[in-house]
Amino acid sequence: MEDDYASFVGLMDLAMIHGMTFGEIAEYFNEEFDLEADLSVVQMKNYDRSKKYSELELPFVMPSPNMPTTESVDVYPVTGYFETFENISEGRGTAKPFQLIGAEFIDSTQYAKDLNELNLPGVKFRPAAFTPAPGQKVEEELAEGVEVYVTNTDNYDPVYTGLSIIKVINDNYSDNIEWRDDEWLAQLTGKSYIEEDLKNGEEVENIVEKWQPELEEFKETRENYLLYESSNLDEEQRESPLSNSNTIVWTIIGGTILAGLGVLCYIKQRKE
């Protein structure tokens, strides 16, 4: 992460899709960023990190009012990037927040067709039309766009998918979209070049390639903090945060639970 873009949505270096439990990420923060917290992690019994959240037989508790279901949690790392636009709704103010993307100027049928033709793994798109509630972007206006369906959490890549659906909109509607002027995408991703690359029509694979060295370094560091084994992941899969089918759930909920540790990081930085 670039230091200039540390904010309340991301204070320290951490992969957006990290595939770690609360305890694992707490120990990661405490050690890697020298928080010196008096931390003790009580390990879960019989936990298998390869299981999907729905297989854990636990009730789902909303981590946010705008994430009312596991489906909305699954797509948040994809569509959360749309917060960077002033005039494109990410589904807030509807019954399916973050599952819907739309704006007045989008042709929903063509947009869905263009996205499905990308053959992105583990995800499909259907044309959709919706009207966000008052107080939200595109409020009380008919927005056309797509509904995002995650069909296979084991092989879809949320970050690549999210940048791809932005690229298609930018390629087709660059004269219509309004980017926020506070570099919000840079704050969400920690990278200043992503917005500029997308505006310039750069291919998503080239953008993603830029942070691969950092990602590989994170994967190696992450191994030091994994507390639980998996019953059905081979060594290659274990090394990839995306192979963990709990990845999306832990990413969103973990970020909320560990806000206190994030504050400690910030306080320590200010003191230094």
TrEMBL record:
The Peptidoglycan beta-N-acetylmuramidase NamZ C-terminal domain extends over 75-228
Gene Ontology MF term list: peptidoglycan beta-N-acetylmuramidase activity
Which keywords does the record carry?
Membrane, Transmembrane, Transmembrane helix
Record Pfam families: NamZ_C, NamZ_N
Query: Which segments constitute the Peptidoglycan beta-N-acetylmuramidase NamZ N-terminal domain?
Result: 2-70
Enumerate the transmembrane spans: 248-267
Domain of life the protein comes from: Bacteria
Looking up PANTHER family in the UniProt record yields: HYPOTHETICAL 460 KDA PROTEIN IN FEUA-SIGW INTERGENIC REGION [PRECURSOR], PEPTIDOGLYCAN BETA-N-ACETYLMURAMIDASE NAMZ
Q: What is this protein called?
A: Uncharacterized protein
Which organism does this record belong to? Tetragenococcus osmophilus
- Source taxonomy: Bacteria, Bacillati, Bacillota, Bacilli, Lactobacillales
